[in-house]
Request: fold
Amino acid sequence: MSLTRSARRFGETVDNLIIGAGPAGLTAAYTLAKAGAEVLVLEQDPEYVGGISRTAHYKGFLFDIGGHRFFSKSKEVVDLWNEILPDDFIERPRLSRIYYGGKFYAYPLRAFEALGNLGLIESALCMASFGWAKARPIKDPATFHQWVRNQFGERLFGIFFKTYTEKVWGMPCDEISADWAAQRIKGLDLLAAVLDGVKRSLGVGRGGGQGGPKTLIESFRYPRRGPGMMWEACKAKVEALGGQVRMGARVVGLDFQNGLWTVTAIGGDGESLSFAARNVISSAPMRELIDHISPKPASHNRAMQLSYRDFLTVVLIGRSERQIPDNWVYIHDPNVKVGRVQNFRSWSPELIPDPDSTCLGLEYFCFEGDGLWASSDEDLIALAKQEIDNIGLMRAADVVDGTVVRQPKAYPVYDAMYRENVDAVRADLAANYPGLWLVGRNGMHKYNNQDHAMMTGMLTALNILAGREVYDVWDVNEDAEYHEGGVEGAEEALASERLVPRRVGAAVGGA
Reply:
C-alpha cells in the first residue's frame, strides 16, 4: 500500500504528521496515539528508527552509535521507558578510562594510580605548574585554554583537557570561549579532587557527599540488545494503536495555507508523496526544515548559518586475548586521531553473537565532507586497526572484519551567532507558521540528551492535545553535569542549557 493511500485512511488530512522517528518524534507519536489522535510518522532512513539512538547491525553484531546509558532525572521519562520496554532492561556496571601517553587512567582519577602513571617527576612538574598558575593567573581569561590553565596549570591542561576537547569539537582550545570551561568544569577543585582520588585509591568512601563534588554513576540500565530496541518497540506500539510509521520517506517540502500544512516527500522507490496535516512535529535538523518551507521564511538566512559536528564509528571485529572491562575509553593521546573507543560487549553481551569475539567501536569526530568523513571504508578500517594496535586495546593482527557507520549532524554547534539565529527562527515560526512544532536535539538545535529529547516530544504532544501551549518545550534541558551525575528518577529535569563550546570572536593566544 502506498503512503498516499495509507494517509487516506484518515481522510484528506492527517491530524498530526511527525518528521523523524528518533526519540523525540516517536515519543510524540506514542503520546498522541495513546490519546486516540491520528498520527503519521515519516522517517527518511529505510531501515532504522531511533536516529542517533538506533542500534546498527553487521553480520549479527549489534552496536550503539555514540553510547546511550539509560538514566534520567525525569520520572515521566523513566516511567515511559518501563512502559515501552518492561522486560528487556539489564543493569550494567559503568567503567571508563582515559588513555594518555601509553598509559590508562581510571576515570574518575585515582591519585596513586595517576601518580604512578605520570611518574614522580611529571607529577611534581604538574603540581609546580598548578602552583605557578595560582600564583600568576591570567587576568580575565577569555579562552578555554586560559581558564583551564588558571584552574589546573599548563601541564594538566595539556594532559587531561587539550587533546580530547579539540578532537571532539574540531577547534583549538585557544578559540573556545572560557564561559564553556567555567560552566562545564564548574565545582571541580584540584585539591579536593586529589583528596577524593586518595580516598578512592584506598577504597575509603566514594566521594560526592553533601556539599562535595558529584560522582559518576557506577551502573546504568541498558536495553539488552541496544538502544534501538527501545525505539523499535515504540514504533510497534504506535502502529498497534493505529498510528503509522513510514520508513524511507524523505521530506522535501512544506507549504502552509488556509490552516493546513502540505508536506511533500520522496518515497524509497522514488515516488513523489503528498500529505495534508493540521500539525507538523519536526525533529529534522532546523537548518534543513527551514530550507524545505516554501515560500522561504524570513528567517531562512539565519537558519542556513546553523552548523553541526559529525562523527563516524569504525567497528573492528576479531578474536583477542586482551580483556577489556571498559564501556568506553577516552583517548587523550595526540598521536592518534580516534577520540573514544567503545567496547560493545561491556554494554551488553547480547550485542555480540558469540562468546569469543571482541567488537570495538572507534569514534572519530569530524565535519561532514572533510578528509576523515570522505575517506573510504577500507582506509578508515586500516587507520582504526593501526590506532587500536598503537593504543594496545587490540592487536591489528587479531582484527578479522570491520565496518563503518557515519553519523551526520551528531552535535549542534553553538557558535557565536547560534542563539540569535535560533531565536530568529523561533520568532518567525511562532508568528507566521502555526501548527509547526520543533522537537529533539537537531529539531531545536539544542544539545539534548536522549531523555531531554523524549521530554520535548512528550510535552509537545500534550500541548497539541490541550489545544494550546501549556508547556514551554524550550525549557527542557540541563547542563552537562547531568550526563554523569545524579540518581535516576530522583527529580524533574532542570530548565537550563546543556553546554557545548562557543568560539571566541577572534583567536586569543594561550598561556
